[in-house]
# Entry
Amino acid sequence: MGKLADLVVVSADYLSVPEEDIRTLSSVLTLIGGKIVHADAEFASLATALDDQLELPGSTLLIESYPNPFSTTTTVEFSLSNAGTIRLRLFNTLGQLIETLAQGQYSAGTHLVTVSGADLPGGVYLYQLETSSGLQTGKLLHIR
# Structure
């Protein structure tokens, strides 16, 4: 299952932006488990500097998507301890397949997949990572 972020820095102060602009805020820095999992804008160079220090995971991990909730796009992150075949799929809450987000042979390490909300109605969605070691599922909230 996904994890909650330790820290999220958003693109503007949500307490001072007009209410109608809150939906357009996005994460510019997200930390999970004390590690940077997303960095944009002025934080991008910090994430790049830390890339060389990352270790391969000891097991397959499906990491919480970010930003979540999202309005336009979100990123699903997963890490593989060994190279292998994966399938990452998006479902609605009725269990109906909406889209296969990624499929095929992936190397060991961390991978990012962008999910577009352009054609999705608002609501809750489930994303599922299938590997040889089993299934892992996360939840997305799409706001229109």
